[in-house]
Design goal:
Elements (H helix, E strand, L loop, with lengths): L1 E4 L6 E4 L2 E4 L2 E4 L4 H6 L8 E8 L3 E7 L6 E7 L1 E8 L10 E7 L5 E4 L3 E7 L3 E8 L8 E3 L20 H4 L20
Antiparallel strand pairs: 1-2, 2-10, 3-4, 5-12, 6-11, 6-13, 7-10, 7-12, 8-9, 8-11
């Protein structure tokens, strides 16, 4: 397994070693010790699965309190996956990284607590799987506007299909600081 540093040091792109032949493939999708060796030490307590059609954009989502770290991957199809640092006081506040995750490359993205997360489906449909480090709490959740000019994400497809929650999300500048996580050297 290769763990790649990204432009946001806390976010990791994980490339598993795939063993395949004409019969199919095998890869190890999670081994606690390997992830711990790369600084991903939080316990996962909830798994989620979603399926979306081409053009669907989900995000940018986060929770606080009950901030969730997410280990995300695509089981079928392809998405453009994004993490945004929204920790108050972070030197990377408002900056984002994005990667294509697909059933073919089998890459994973580690999105730490305190980061907003979103993805857009670029294939006909995609099945998206993620492990979370805290439980979903509807009272703690929020959405940041997917096309916030301050964040300036270059989404791959125009005119995304959005939920009402994502369509009416707040810009990052409009979110009260108390709703966001705080940056510390250890987070």
């Amino acid at each position: 397994m290769e763990v790649v540093e990204t432009a946001l040091p806390e976010v990791k792109l994980i490339k598993p070693k795939i063993f395949g032949d004409d019969r199919g493939f095998f890869y190890e999708s999670f081994r606690k010790q390997v992830y711990q060796n790369h600084g991903i030490t939080l316990e996962f307590v909830q798994d989620n699965l979603s399926k979306s059609n081409k053009g669907v954009l989900r995000g940018l989502h986060l929770q606080n309190p009950n901030s969730q770290g997410k280990l995300v991957t695509v089981l079928s199809g392809e998405v453009y996956d994004v993490a945004v640092d929204v920790r108050v006081g972070s030197p990377n506040f408002g900056k984002s990284v994005g990667f294509y995750l697909s059933e073919h490359n089998k890459h994973q993205l580690w999105v730490p607590p305190g980061f907003a997360h979103g993805f857009q489906v670029t294939s006909e449909s995609a099945t998206f799987f993620y492990k979370c480090t805290d439980y979903y709490n509807p009272r703690s959740e929020m959405s940041i506007l997917w096309n916030d000019p301050k964040i300036a994400i270059d989404w791959p497809l125009p005119d995304p299909s959005l939920s009402e929650k994502d369509r009416t999300a707040l810009s990052l500048d409009s979110v009260e600081e108390s709703r966001l996580c705080r940056y510390t050297e250890n987070t």
